[in-house]
Amino acid sequence: MSPFFVMSLLFGLIFGQTASLCAPSEYTIHVEKRECAYCLAINTTICAGFCMTRDSNGKKLLLRSALSQNVCTYKEMLYRTALIPGCPHHTSPYYSYPVAVSCKCGKCNTDYSDCVRERVRTNYCTKPQKLCNL
């Protein structure tokens, strides 16, 4: 192997973040409330992609700090609020959702992310659909 290849490989292993492909990605969520007449399809952005992870088969032999379980998570986000149409007066017609502004590879924060695995959910409407582009 050439010295350039070896140095590139070492550099890539040391600075694995550069090989990560974690970025805001377009996503459509479907929101409906039992009391409201319509389902709302909201176009937003979420953090998605690949992050370099170091995990060893010999976990018991290594210090916990030597293991790295990074996920693609929010670096910066903001919340927007949408109005669900067709709600009766006694029901709140508002739904707030996160919008990814920028993403990073890092530890999973359980305050706003599901860190275990993706839950099996239905992401579709059972009522007539309205589209929300914000």
TrEMBL record:
Signal peptide coordinates: 1-16
Gene3D superfamilies (UniProt xref): Cystine-knot cytokines
GO (cellular component) term, any one: cytoplasm
GO MF annotations, alphabetized: hormone activity
GO BP of this protein: G protein-coupled receptor signaling pathway
Coarse class of the protein's main subcellular location: secreted
Keyword Secreted: yes
Protein's cellular compartments: Secreted
Quaternary structure and interacting proteins, as annotated: Heterodimer of a common alpha chain and a unique beta chain which confers biological specificity to thyrotropin, lutropin, follitropin and gonadotropin.
Protein name stated in the entry: Thyrotropin subunit beta
Species per Swiss-Prot/TrEMBL record: Vidua chalybeata
